[in-house]
Amino acid sequence: MAELTMGAVQFAERSNLKRFIATDSFFKYLTRAAAITVLAILFGVFVSLTLGAWPAFRAFGLDFLTVQTWNPVTEKFGALAPIYGTILTSLIAMLIAVPVGIGIAIFLTELCPRLLRQPIGIAIELLAGIPSIIYGIWGLFVFAPFLQQHVQPALIGFFGGVPILNQFFAGPPYGIGMFTAGLILAIMVIPFISSISRDVFDTTPAVLKESAYALGCTKWEVIWSVVLPFGRSGVLGGVMLGLGRALGETMAVTFVIGNAHRISASILAPGTTISATIANEFTEAVGDLYTASLIALGFILFVITFIVLAIARYMLSRLELKTR
Amino acid sequence: MMSLYSRRVVRNKVWLSLSVGAAGFGLLWLVLILSTLVWNGIAGLSLSVFTEMTPPPGSAGGLLNPIVGSLIMTLIAVAIGTPIGMLAGTYMAEYGRYDRITYAIRIINDILLSAPSIIVGLFIYEILVVTMGHFSGFAGAVSLAVIVIPVVVRTTEDMLLLVPNQMREAASALGAPQWFVISRVAYRGAQAGMVTGVLLAVARISGETAPLLFTALNNQFWGVNLNAPMPSLPVVIFQFALSPYEDWQRLAWTGALIITVAVLSLSILARVLLSKGVER
């Protein structure tokens, strides 16, 4: 506080007044410039990717999005297989991560003994802190062999006699492939969904829950008809945030996807995703068109994740308005 | 035929146990991943890991050059990213709190926060690697800095917004100009949180691989030249793990253990610091 009164005293001195005003406007413009840098980065990403991808878009046009061929030798590139792989792996991930993530959040907010709440919450969040390359190396050496030996043969056997479904679970158990990548993504996304959902559920006004209990609701009925509806938009925001991560995740997927540029009916087959293709091939890409096609893939990924994340933020901000 | 009452009770039990099961499922993966990591990583852990260079296949060696490379690039990334991030956060919470541009920056920053890191790598490749004509440690550091900025912006803004307005008003009432109020009052109140933000950013970038793949590339040899390709721990792990050589794979596991321990202890430290700061 001594400094403060000093500041006030100094301020009274006329000669210092000018300096103060100058410092203030300097500081103001400095911080403003830094803030605008954030905007500039996003703009720069957009422009540089557009420019880098331009040769590929000019050469292939809209066919780039609908053609499955990916042939560096003849320089014919189409993004359909990576786009398909990105969407399929994310879909598998979300199918598992959404119910599990929300389940964990329900457990942490409504069921868990108070004493265990923080340690379990932190443990789940640590799962989000583990770098993706760790998931990759673990997936390749531990998880994929396990799936190959135990889970995939069982799946193939189980669905073998079922029409239509046996198409999805066909073929030899490679271990690596779309299915494995989707499962690993699910593990990575669970903490995102659960930590946001937990924060959202915590904002449910106690009065609402208590009145439901007073009407004789069971715990589950309170959760289902009070807590979940109240936090709907927030949970959806968390899910979209998780989806954004799943779509763009690179290293964990690159290890276990198999990097095969084809679309297979079976989800057990190797495939590729946008980010895995870029990570695997970018430094080895010879020829401008090859590089441009990879950057075009990056551009597509950027646009997709941008839209998904923007929706996520919109949903979360709606919840903020509600609780304010 | 069950009565309505017992049906409700059963349904309650089923769903609640599913929720407990979900929590167990989540914890199971944490335990599985960490235990296999420790199991595989500790076997190769020895002093030589920290004192020797990455070996050619088939001979013994360590991870000294990638560890040093990672440290250098992380340090530079933090040195570039932290000031920009903190100043931007300051603008959003102080000078421009009610500006329309702040609203836009907040949305954009949140998107950058979760944007795929490989996109950042492509961006830096386009603007630095292509223009300089070669891969470099500097480009790697800049790409990490781009990841640091949104993390620091977010925590700085959040923490400054937590500082009660009365403190600012009291200082202003004494005649202090705004920069003085910000640097002596607001920053002091938000200190712990801002440091936490930097720690979280370091934790985030120390495991990042994707943006380094085609900016810093890799380097088998000792090198602290920022103008040349620079090895980093994550990229070396990526290369070694996918190689067919067993020594390399063992080193990859050890490197993975080192990174995980570093990252997790950083994020735990950040959490402790934050909870202490809030208590005060």
Task: Give a topology summary.
The complex is a heterodimer of chains A (324) and B (280).
Chain A lengths: L1 H11 L1 H47 L2 H4 L3 E2 L4 E2 L2 H32 L2 H16 L2 H28 L5 H4 L9 H25 L3 H9 L4 H12 L1 H17 L2 H6 L17 H8 L6 H36 L1
Antiparallel strand pairs in A: 1-2
Helix pairs in contact in A: 2-14, 4-8, 4-11, 4-13, 5-8, 6-8, 8-11, 9-10, 11-14, 13-14
Chain B lengths: L3 H40 L3 H5 L12 H32 L4 H15 L2 H16 L4 H26 L2 H9 L4 H29 L3 H4 L19 H9 L4 H34 L1
Helix pairs in contact in B: 1-11, 3-6, 3-8, 3-10, 4-6, 5-6, 6-8, 7-8, 8-11, 10-11
Please give the alpha-carbon distance between the first and last residues of chain A: 34 Å
CATH topology of the largest domain in chain B: MetI-like fold
How many extended strands of chain A?
2
The CATH superfamily title of the largest domain in chain A: MetI-like
- Please trace the helix and strand order of chain B, writing H or E for each element: HHHHHHHHHHH
Largest sheet properties of chain A: 2 strands, antiparallel
Supply the key terms:
heterodimer; A: 324 residues; mainly alpha; MetI-like fold; two-stranded antiparallel sheet; 2 strands; B: 280 residues; 78% helix
Task: Give a short summary of the structure.
The complex is a heterodimer of chains A (324) and B (280). Chain A is mostly helical and 324 residues long.
Task: Describe the structure in your own words.
The complex is a heterodimer of chains A (324) and B (280). Chain A is mainly alpha-helical and 324 residues long. Helices cover 79% and strands 1% of the residues of chain A. Chain A folds into two domains: 1-60; 62-323, MetI-like fold (Orthogonal Bundle). Chain A has helices spanning 2-12, 14-60, 63-66, 80-111, 114-129, 132-159, 165-168, 178-202, 206-214, 219-230, 232-248, 251-256, 274-281, 288-323; strands spanning 70-71, 76-77. Chain A has a two-stranded antiparallel ribbon. In chain A, strand 1 (70-71) and strand 2 (76-77) form a beta hairpin. The model of chain A has no long low-confidence stretch (mean pLDDT 88). Chain B has two domains: 1-43; 48-279, Orthogonal Bundle (MetI-like fold). Chain B has eleven helices and no strands. The longest helix of chain B has 40 residues, at 4-43. Classes of the chains: A mainly alpha (324), B mainly alpha (280). Chains A and B meet through helix 1, helix 2, helix 4, helix 5 and helix 6 of A and helix 1, helix 3, helix 4, helix 5 and helix 6 of B.
